[in-house]
Every structure is written in structure tokens, then in C-alpha cells.
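Input chain follows. Return C-alpha cells only.
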Amino acid sequence: MVHVTYPTRSSEHPAPRTQPSPGRRTAPRLIATDLDGTLLRNDKTVSERTIAALAAAEAAGIEVFFVTGRPARWMDIVSEHVHGHGLAICANGAAVVDLHAGGRVIRVRELARRDAVNVVQALRAAAPGVSFAVERTAGIHYEPAYPSFPQDPGASYAPVDELLADHGDGHLADPIVKLLAHHPTGDPDAFLTLGCTAAGAHAEFTRSSPSALLEISGRGVSKASTLALACQERGIAPHEVAAFGDMPNDLAMLTWAGRSYAMANAHPDVLLSTDHVTGSNEDDGVAAVIESFL
């Protein structure tokens, strides 16, 4: 069962609420950073200061992983800033992509079709008016009522039952990496709670949008669990990781990492659940902390 509330630091022994200090900090072995609202500015650009900080971290032997809810096809904006390994964790942990190879997906942690169908049925009953989109490794597919994104001009449209149908012809469709559920009038946090309550036994639920939009992954799939796999492969322990984020879909990663940094513009739950608060995404908060490491 998915739980809405993530572990926070102990209220009896609260972690220091600090801004990055000018003194040098012990550098981590790996930096994991979200993109939208965290590394990227509001106009979706990477500042020159942040570009320089990322390059300096890699030059110092610190691996940098972009860990995002974005699909692989939306990673062009940062692909040239991934050094060394070239990998990024996309779709909230459901896909690992090689940005040096044009965004080729090299690992998939899919949402099972039957689980997706169960989620759709449960949310339809619990939240009338909900509409869905199905994100697969090869692209996204929308219900007609779902608010589509201009970044996806090649998307297809059909009722979600058709998008998730098992045609029984032996043809395997591209794996499902995310199911998206949108409600036109719901409160974003209340809709997340409702989704977890109604269908949490079938999938992992989170959110990162200012609207009532749920991001639904396979059971056990999150930014944290896929990042943990990448770190295990490299012999890196959680205490050697510094993570940055701003929204509920970052919470699992932030509470897993040894050092966690909320952006000043972060969701209240993120601000309560992290060790440190850095500057906003508009003020290059990630770069400021990386500079303090170096």
C-alpha cells in the first residue's frame, strides 16, 4: 500500500534548518537532482552558474544524476550537461536513459497493464470527471478529455480502456512507464490522498504539478528506488549522496539520501522532510550548495 506521508526528520531531534554556508562542506560521492522547480529556472533554462557548478562537480569526481518525472523525450534541455556516465533517471524512476545515446532507454521498471486497469477503475469510481494519459517508452497517449502538452505533437488519442486494452494477438505493446490521472477541479494534495486511498494497493502515487495531476508508477517504483539501484551498482551508500528537490515526487529520494536539500520554493511537505533548505531554483540554489562542496 502506498502511503501519502513520507518519513520526516525526528521532531525530538530536528535537523538544522540551514542555508548553504560559505565554508567548504565535505563533498558527497553522488549528487541527485530534480529538474523542474529545482535545477531549472522557471523559464526551463539552466543558468550559466549552474552549468559551471555541474561541470566542476564532475571534474572533482562527483557523479551527477538528473532524477526527474520527465519522460526521456523531454531531456534535450539538459542532455549536454550530463558528463561521464551520461545517464538520467526519468519518469519518476520508471526509466533510466542514456543521454549520450540520444535518450535511449536502457532500463525500464514498468507499470503492469493489469495494475493500470485496476487504478483506472478505482479512480473513476472515486473521482468522477477524471481523465487519463498513458506514458509508454515510445511516447504518450491521451484520452480526448485529458489536457495534452504542446511538447507532444505526435501523441495519439483514444479512451483509456482502448489505450490499455489487451488485444490478445501476441503483440507486446511498449511498456507502460507512467499512468497519468487529471481532475479538472480537484485540489492537488487532496487528489493525491484520494488516489492513494482508492488505488494504492495497485501502484505508486505521487504528484509534481500545480494542478490535480497524479503520476502513477509500478509498485515499488520511485525516484528513490531506482537511484538506490544506480548507487548500489557503483558501490555508493546513501550517506554518500546529496539530493535536491521541490515537490512530493522528490520526497522518497530526499528521505533516502544521506543529505537532503529542499529548494526555498519547495512544497511544504518537502520543506518539513529535508535536512537543509537552499535558495530557490530562480536563485541557483543547487549551484550554491555544489559550490560549497568544492
